[in-house]
Amino acid sequence: MILLNSKLPTVGTTIFSVMSKLAQQHNAINLSQGFPDYATNPKLINFVADAMKDGYNQYAPMQGLQILRELVAEKMDKMYGAYYHPETEVTITAGGTQAIFTALAAVINPGDEVIIFEPAYDCYSPTVKLLGGLVKPFELHAPDYSIDWEMVKKLFTANTRMIILNSPHNPSGSILSKADIQALIKLTKNTDILIISDEVYEHIIFDGEKHESVALYPELQERSFIVASYGKLLHTTGWKLGYCLAPAKLMAEFRKIHQFNVFSVNTPMQLGVANYLKSENIYDSLSSFFQQKRDLFRSLLSETKFKLLPCKGSYFQCVSYSNFSDEKDIDMAKRLVTDFGVAGIPVSAFYTKGTDDKILRFCFAKEQDTLEKAVERLLKV
Fold it and tell me: What transmembrane ranges does the database entry give (predicted)?
C-alpha cells in the first residue's frame, strides 16, 4: 500500500467547480464562475489565428514576447505614471493565478506570515500553506467590506512577510480608497513587508471611481508584485494569459520560479493580443460596458426578495438573503440550482473559517438575455 502525506489535506474541489458541475447537471443558468457567455471580438480571434498561420507556434521567450511586454510598460506609464522596464520588470504569465502562485513561491519561506483579507480569492491561502507559510486572515464583512487598518496592524509580527491585496475585490465588488492606500503606506513604512496586489479587475470600476493601483504610489510600488489578467480584459478567461509587474530585484526572483513552473506562455496568443491592443483602444470602454450590465442586473434584482450589496467594481454582484431565510449559504446556493435553475457562489467559501453572513455572489458578465432569464427564475424564490 502506498502511503501519501498530502501537502493540502483539507483542500478539496473548489466551490467554483462544484457549483458549475451542479449547474450543468440541472441545466441551470450559471452565474457562479466568473466567465462571459458572449463571443470574443472576431478581430482578436483573427489576430491570434494569423499568428498561428504565420508560424509563431514555438516557444516564446521565458519572460514573454517583447512586443507585449513593451505594451504593458506603455500602458502602466500612460495610466498610472509608473515606469516598468519591459526587459527586467514585466513578465507575461499563464493567467493571474499562475502569477500569484509564482510570486508567493519566489518569496515565502516556511514560517513566513501572510495577511489576507477575507472573503478572498481561493488560491491565496492554499498556496501560502503549500509553501510552509502561515495565513493570517483578516475578516471583512457586508455591506461595504471596509478595512479597519488599526486592527490590521495588530496582526503584524516579526514574521510578517507579505500582505495580499485585491481591488476591485472578488467577491464583494468593493474597492480600495485613497485613504486605504495611505494607511497601508503608513503601516509598511520602514519594514521589509512585501505586497501582492491582485488587480485583475483594474479596468472594471464604476460610477467614475478611480482605481487606486499600488503602481501610483512609489512607497508601495517598490515592494509590490502587481498581477493583471488579459482574460478579464479581453473576455477570454479560457486563454489563461496575464502578466506580473515588479521592481527588477523582485522580478528576478519571480522569474527563477516562473522558468521552472511554466517556462513560457502561449506564443500565438501573446502576439495576437499585442497586435489587437495596438489597433484597438479597449481600456477606456470596459468600465462603461460592464456598468451597463451591472445597472441592468441590479435593476432586475431589485424586484426580488434579495437585498443588493454595493458593487463598485469587478463583474460580481453580492446579495443578502438573511431577511427571508436562515439557511446556510451553501444550502441556499444549492437550492437555487436544484429548485430554481440559477447557480451562484456562497460567499462563506471565500473565508478560511467558512464565515456565513448569508451572502451569495452572482456574476453579471453575461448576455442581457441570460441575466433577464436568471432573474425571472430568482423572482420565484
Answer: none
